[in-house]
Specification:
- The protein is of the alpha/beta class.
- The chain contains 12 helices and 14 strands.
- The protein has 2 domains: about 220 residues, Type I PLP-dependent aspartate aminotransferase-like (Major domain) (Aspartate Aminotransferase, domain 2, 3-Layer(aba) Sandwich), CATH 3.40.640.10; about 120 residues, Aspartate Aminotransferase, domain 1, CATH 3.90.1150.10.
- About 40% of the residues lie in helices and about 15% in strands.
- The strands form 4 sheets. The chain has a 7-stranded mixed β-sheet, sandwiched between helices.
- α1 runs antiparallel to α8.
- The protein starts with 11 loop residues before the first helix and ends with a helix.
- The structure holds pyridoxal-5'-phosphate.
- Pyridoxal-5'-phosphate (PLP) binds next to α3 and α4.
Length: about 350
């Protein structure tokens, strides 16, 4: 038995939906994509959903739609997946890294505000591990300084603050990679309430065209297929139950793990537990704990062992001075994610508790 960190579910209904698309002959972006966009936007309470071929292109298209470019600074956390930063670099803008809140692992509003310069154009918090960033404060900061607010919601389908779902504060990018809370194989989506940004995103994903062979802006092929969207529509129906199960699994671990720091959910927040991330105690070798759990068939993983601001891409850039981000660097040394996916059995959950408690 091996307990993977993720276990994507493809059931009979997904297979039937894919077969129906294959039989229709309408393989590329069409009615299935439009229906998936509407359903995903409605679920989050956003006005527009614009499907993309993955979460990385969703982020890139968002940067382009806002017109960011050389000389513009976008404030992001360094404690994230690399695509958060490469999206900023893709338009030749400058990622400015700010530190995290050590409790939630999300971008710290105070640190982000302190990083604002005259060149700052936007802030993009990440809802890391499925915990919503403090969007109420980010919205106030963005308004006060006249900045664009974006969200990297790749890990946070359905996460909410006081019942308001992520994807409704700023231009928000989601991913449907198989390890995420729902999947389309590869896939992504941008949510926005802004009609003009939505119009631009639709052009950017489709060669910059507003109508056939009239190219209004520079665009690319970031289109989702009807095949992927058909899977997504079925998966979205299961998402609420899967999210409930993730939250229940997290509560089970919280009540039973004794020697480690268990994840915190900020008041009023709905944490959707893309990852269940513990901190190993001071003096414990995190990497050794990970290795021992892996040897005992538990797929514990570190997200992310090296913060983005210390990646070779940046440290080898001429003139780059790495900022000091102590909470980010500490988290990168201590965090360890345990399987929390909704397909865990009672035996698997009990084994995870037993093994972690034996090691920490
Ligand atoms: C997965 C992920 C992405 C990228 O999504 P893909 O669909 O894999 O391209 C971006 N940001 C974060 C935080 C992610 O977890």
């Amino acid at each position: 038995m091996s307990i993977g960190i993720a276990r994507p579910v493809i059931g009979e209904r997904e297979k039937q939906a894919v077969m129906a698309v294959l039989e229709s002959g309408q393989l590329v972006q069409g009615a299935e994509v439009a229906a998936f966009e509407r359903a995903f936007a409605d679920y989050h309470g956003a006005r527009h959903g614009i499907a993309m071929n993955n979460g990385t292109t969703a982020l890139m298209a968002s940067m382009m739609a806002h017109g960011f470019g050389p000389g513009d600074e976008v404030i992001i956390p360094s404690f994230s997946f690399f695509a958060t930063a490469s999206a900023v670099l893709s338009v030749q803008a400058t990622p400015v890294f700010a530190d995290i809140d050590p409790a939630t692992y999300c971008l710290s509003p105070a640190a982000a505000e302190a990083a604002i310069t005259p060149r700052t154009v936007a802030i993009m918090p990440v809802h890391l591990y499925g915990h919503p960033a403090d969007m109420t404060r980010f919205e106030a900061i963005a308004r006060q300084h006249g900045l664009v607010l974006l969200e990297d919601a790749a890990q946070a389908h359905g996460a909410a603050i006081a019942g308001r779902r992520v994807g409704t504060w700023g231009t928000a990018s989601f991913s449907f990679y198989p390890s995420k809370n729902m999947t389309t194989g590869e896939g992504g989506m941008v949510l926005t309430d802004d009609d003009e940004i939505a119009r631009k995103l639709r052009m950017i994903r489709n060669q910059g065209m507003d109508q056939q062979y009239r190219h209004e802006v520079v665009g690319y092929n970031f289109r989702m297929t009807n095949i992927a969207a058909a899977i997504g529509r079925v998966q979205l129906e299961s998402l609420p139950a899967w999210t409930e199960q993730r939250i229940a699994n997290a509560a089970y671990f919280n009540a039973r793990l004794t020697g480690v720091r268990t994840p915190v959910t900020a008041p009023g927040c709905t944490h959707v537990f893309h990852q269940y991330t513990i901190r190993t105690p001071e003096g414990k070798e995190r990497d050794a704990v990970e290795k021992r759990l892996n040897e005992r068939s538990i797929g514990a993983r570190v997200y992310y062992p090296r913060p983005i601001h210390l990646q070779p891409v940046f440290t080898t850039m001429p003139g780059y001075a790495a900022p000091s981000l102590p909470e980010t660097e500490k988290a990168a040394r201590e965090v360890l994610s345990l399987p929390v996916h909704p397909m865990l059995t009672e035996e698997e959950k009990a084994l995870i508790v037993q093994e972690v408690n034996a090691l920490c």
